[in-house]
């Protein structure tokens, strides 16, 4: 499923963000925030006080109304979805009401450069995005169950990040927020304190920890001092009542000390509610570091069994992401969770007839080439 | 900085191959003797696994990072957090009378003289005034005897008053009644149900053993106890009734039978307790007594049986092992007053005797019944909270029970998991501080900790069972997939 498409535009002088509607709206204020989506040149109503027209087929002609037309990939858009259209014709679906996996990509900048980063950060200052994020939050359906906050490193905007969380609390009080951050900035106690003070009712920070020793963690995230910042940051977050989930990516550098890492977590970070063990995603920087990172998941099942047992014995929950079920040791399969995206998964010819096809996360489209030797349909 | 430096730790030659190293927060690591020697000479290469292990568990540091210090400080603070709340457990001896005449019973009286041995309404009120002066976030009130149900009016008064005061002051409160259940009737059960009271009773093992240990008119203690357990479970819920056992000389031969008796009657925990060296127990030592070594042999056999039962899928926790394991394997504190440093006598738990005398522990009260009032902290009628809980007697108890400063304990690898019990030490030797080489307290704890460590090391079934005791869930993880 594509989230972006280049359209032909007219009358769009700045980025316009609005809610999609296929049906005419009675409320004038709602119309001003709405992109009227039409399948052909026949208009269902007078479009003049709408934000603009999105056309899938032939463009209708209306004076003085912004128009984006020629959409094909985004024809799935529906009532309540949120799109942004810029003067160059970029149409981006920011939010799909039917999806379980909506997120706000706060920034593309990052203060780390993990060897296996799936979305390599960009250096340019994109803090002007914040305005767009606020509008985004204001437009999405308050009935949304969960919203992800990601990057890059979303905390880099500091007060801007805090303002985003506060805005979510105000506009989307019943939406669970899941923030993906490296946690380094919470080394600054005041920053953690301010986040705690927002008292968002349903907020979890997912924070990666890759080793029980600083040198290895710092190497994996390619940033000196990151281990110290993250670990002390975790303690600060706990002190101010912010819920934490730890994330461990499994690869050739993390596997040898995985059990020790689990012990470290159980002893030093027992307040973490959950530990997620993630398989390597074959996207982004991984390909540049494949020699250093690749290990066949079939070769680390014992380590993963031990580590998840240590975590669960310590009274925390453990789960396993991004793994094909047939590769996992049988006792790990109940811990497997489908990966967080709902469109990029594919299956292989070997999967034909597999009894767990429905439950298995399969493969990332980009990840079928380098894969475990153990793929095999399950009886 | 170049090279590395050592952080505080303790160690012990554990076996022929390995040294056990324990850090100040009680985390441990087995290290080959050679590596250990290199480690303390600061010759360990940073590229070795053992170096990284020692670093991650905070035995050494090699940079100016604040992490090892911050984390160690947090962990030590957490382990000592039982100190923060001050006295949480408050025991009331509502009657010294009992209709049992157990041979090992420390102090109770078979008597019908209510005025002489029962706690009065006024005394109970005064004691509750003291309870509510305690700053503890959670108050636990335990009503015991003698047999407390012989003075049920007082039980009711204390629970009703305490609940009302707790509600008024918005404080958390819990109640336990320690009883032989023989006198338990439906009205009492209805009351306990209404107030969420837990019951704790005694079950020494199979009928013959139990009844021999615990004579009462009719010789039916075992039958009455189990009948009481059944009725109490029905009325209060299965998890509201627990049992404790006391090991007598006759028990030593039948550890398996005792354990099986607990399983047969649906208990999920058992506490294998040795006789305490107080009161009548001392006098009857010839009939009941045994050496620490004999008790430990008994304990090991019973524990083996318990582990096998758990591995087969039935949860039965041994409470003392669970306590030690929590101290060894988790970052959390325990609130068991007889195994912490400083000891919990007075600052973790306190006893209000039927006559209003306040003692640092139940053992201290028993000692007083033997005419040694060394640990009398004061009296609820005569003394103020400040004199009782801030007086010289309690200060001496606390000062003498900091194991970190006790000769022998100070260098012991097991210290972070162990503690001190000044009342016990005094009762057995006349000195509040133990003489470690001859102390039965030391012999028992040193042996048990070592035994648990070797089980953790070599027996994966035992390890899995032990971890399951530290979790809420009922079964060991291994049993989950079977
Ligand atoms: S065979 Fe395919 S569908 Fe079945 S578990 Fe393996 S990867 Fe998943
Ligand atoms: S009593 Fe014994 S085992 Fe316990 S700390 Fe002292 S010396 Fe060690």
Textual characterization of the structure:
- Chain A has 379 residues and is α/β, with parallel strands linked by helices.
- Chain A has 2 domains: 4-95, Phosphohistidine domain (Glucose Oxidase, domain 1, 3-Layer(bba) Sandwich); 103-367, TIM Barrel (Alpha-Beta Barrel), CATH 3.20.20.
- Chain A has 9 helices and 18 strands.
- Chain A has helices spanning 28-32, 129-139, 159-171, 189-198, 214-221, 226-239, 258-268, 290-293, 301-313, and strands at residues 4-6, 8-10, 16-21, 34-38, 52-55, 67-69, 82-85, 90-95, 103-105, 146-150, 176-180, 203-208, 243-249, 274-278, 317-321, 336-337, 345-346, 363-364.
- In chain A, the strands form 3 sheets. In chain A, strands 1-8-7-3-4-5-6-2 form an 8-stranded mixed sheet. An 8-stranded parallel sheet of chain A has the order 9-10-11-12-13-14-15-16, with helices on one face.
- In chain A, helix 7 (258-268) links the parallel strand 13 and strand 14 (274-278).
- In chain A, helix 7 runs parallel beside helix 9 (301-313).
- The two termini of chain A are 31 Å apart.
- The model of chain A has no long low-confidence stretch (mean pLDDT 92).
- Chain B is α/β, with parallel strands linked by helices.
- Chain B folds into 2 domains: 5-79, no CATH class; 85-379, TIM Barrel, CATH 3.20.20.
- Helices cover 43% and strands 14% of the residues of chain B.
- Chain B contains 21 helices and 16 strands.
- Chain B has helices spanning 33-40, 49-56, 67-79, 114-117, 121-131, 152-168, 186-194, 207-213, 221-236, 255-264, 279-283, 285-288, 292-311, 319-329, 362-369, 385-390, 392-400, 422-429, 440-458, 460-469, 477-481, and strands spanning 5-6, 9-13, 18-23, 28-32, 60-61, 89-93, 138-144, 172-178, 198-202, 241-246, 269-270, 272-273, 317-318, 349-352, 357-359, 376-379.
- In chain B, the strands form 4 sheets. A 9-stranded mixed sheet of chain B has the order 12-10-9-8-7-6-14-15-16, with helices on both faces.
- In chain B, helix 7 (186-194) packs across helix 9 and helix 10 (255-264) crosses helix 13 (292-311).
- Chain B is globular.
- The relative contact order of chain B is 0.10.
- Chains A and B meet through helix 6, helix 7 and helix 9 of A and helix 2, helix 3 and helix 21 of B.
- The structure holds iron/sulfur cluster (2 copies).
- One iron/sulfur cluster binds next to loops of chain A.
């Amino acid at each position: 499923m594509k989230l972006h498409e280049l359209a032909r535009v007219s009358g769009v002088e700045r980025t316009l963000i609005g809610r999609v509607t296929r049906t005419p709206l009675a409320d004038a204020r709602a119309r001003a925030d709405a992109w009227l989506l039409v399948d052909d040149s026949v208009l269902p109503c007078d479009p003049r006080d709408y934000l603009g027209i999105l056309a899938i087929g032939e463009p209708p002609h209306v004076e003085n109304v912004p128009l984006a037309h020629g959409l094909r990939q985004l024809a799935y858009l529906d009532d309540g979805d949120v799109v942004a259209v810029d003067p160059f014709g970029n149409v981006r679906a920011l939010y799909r009401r039917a999806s379980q996996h909506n997120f706000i990509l706060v920034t593309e900048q990052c203060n780390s450069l993990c060897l296996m980063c799936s979305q390599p950060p960009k250096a340019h200052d994109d803090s002007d995005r914040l305005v767009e994020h606020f509008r985004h939050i204001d437009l999405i359906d308050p009935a949304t169950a969960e919203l992800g906050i990601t990057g890059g490193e979303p905390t880099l905007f500091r007060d801007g990040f805090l303002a985003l969380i506060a805005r979510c609390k105000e506009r989307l009080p019943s939406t669970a927020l899941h923030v993906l951050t490296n946690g380094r900035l919470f080394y600054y106690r005041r920053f953690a304190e301010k986040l705690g003070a927002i008292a968002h009712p349903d907020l979890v920070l997912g924070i990666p920890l890759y080793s029980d020793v600083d040198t290895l963690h710092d190497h994996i995230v390619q940033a000196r001092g990151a281990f110290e910042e993250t670990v002390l940051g975790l303690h600060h977050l706990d002190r101010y009542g912010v819920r934490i989930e730890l994330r461990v990516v499994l690869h050739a550098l993390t596997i040898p000390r995985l059990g020790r890492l689990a012990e470290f977590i159980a002893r030093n970070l027992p307040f973490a509610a959950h530990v997620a063990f993630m398989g390597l995603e074959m996207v982004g920087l991984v390909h540049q570091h494949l020699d250093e990172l690749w290990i066949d998941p079939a070769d680390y099942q014992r380590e993963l069994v031990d580590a998840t047992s240590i975590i669960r014995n310590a009274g925390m929950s453990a789960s396993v992401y991004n793994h094909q079920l047939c590769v996992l040791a049988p006792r790990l399969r109940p811990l497997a969770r489908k990966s967080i995206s709902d469109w990029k998964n594919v299956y292989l010819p070997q999967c034909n007839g597999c009894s767990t096809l429905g439950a298995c996360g399969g493969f990332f489209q980009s990840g079928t080439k380098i894969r475990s030797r153990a793929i095999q349909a399950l009886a | 900085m170049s090279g590395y430096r050592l952080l505080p730790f303790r160690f012990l030659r554990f076996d022929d191959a390995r040294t056990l190293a324990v850090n100040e927060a009680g985390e441990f690591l087995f290290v080959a003797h050679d590596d250990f020697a290199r480690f303390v000479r600061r010759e360990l290469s940073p590229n070795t696994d053992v170096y990284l292990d020692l670093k991650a568990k905070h035995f050494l540091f090699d940079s100016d990072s604040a992490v090892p210090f911050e984390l160690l400080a947090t962990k030590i603070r957490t382990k000592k957090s039982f100190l923060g709340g001050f006295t949480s457990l408050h025991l009331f001896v509502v009657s010294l009378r009992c209709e049992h005449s157990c041979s090992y019973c420390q102090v109770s009286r078979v008597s019908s003289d209510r005025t002489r041995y029962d706690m009065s309404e006024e005394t109970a009120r005064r004691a509750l005034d003291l309870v509510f002066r305690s700053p503890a976030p959670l108050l636990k009130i335990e009503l015991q005897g003698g047999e407390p149900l012989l003075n049920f009016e007082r039980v009711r008064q204390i629970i009703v008053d305490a609940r009302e005061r707790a509600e008024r002051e918005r404080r958390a409160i819990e109640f336990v009644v320690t009883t032989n259940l023989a006198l338990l009737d439906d009205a009492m059960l209805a009351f306990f149900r209404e107030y969420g009271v837990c019951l704790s009773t005694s079950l020494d093992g199979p009928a013959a053993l139990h009844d021999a240990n615990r004579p009462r008119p009719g010789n039916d203690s075992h039958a009455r106890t189990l009948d009481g357990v059944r009725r109490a479970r029905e009325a209060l819920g299965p998890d509201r009734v627990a049992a404790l056992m006391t090991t007598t000389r006759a028990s030593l031969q039948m550890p398996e039978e005792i354990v099986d008796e607990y399983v047969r009657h649906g208990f999920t925990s058992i506490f294998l307790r040795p006789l305490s060296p107080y009161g009548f127990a001392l006098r009857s030592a010839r009939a009941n007594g045994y050496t620490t070594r004999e008790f430990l042999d008994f304990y090991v056999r019973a524990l083996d049986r318990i582990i096998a039962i758990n591995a087969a899928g039935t949860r039965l926790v041994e409470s003392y092992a669970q306590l030690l394991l929590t101290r060894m394997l988790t970052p959390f504190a325990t609130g068991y007053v007889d195994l912490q440093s400083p000891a919990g006598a007075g600052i973790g738990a306190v006893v209000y005797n039927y006559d209003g005398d306040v003692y640092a522990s139940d053992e201290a009260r028993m000692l007083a019944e033997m005419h040694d009032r060394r640990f009398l902290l004061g009296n609820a009628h005569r003394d103020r909270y400040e004199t009782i809980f801030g007086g010289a007697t309690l200060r001496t108890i606390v000062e003498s029970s900091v194991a970190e400063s006790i000769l022998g304990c100070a260098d012991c690898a097991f210290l972070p998991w162990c503690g001190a019990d000044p009342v016990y030490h005094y009762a057995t030797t006349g000195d509040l501080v133990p003489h470690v080489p001859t102390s039965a307290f030391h012999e028992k704890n040193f042996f048990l900790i070592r035994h648990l460590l070797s089980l953790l090391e070599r027996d994966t079934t035992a390890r899995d069972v032990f971890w399951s005791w530290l979790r809420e869930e009922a079964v060991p993880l291994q049993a989950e997939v079977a």
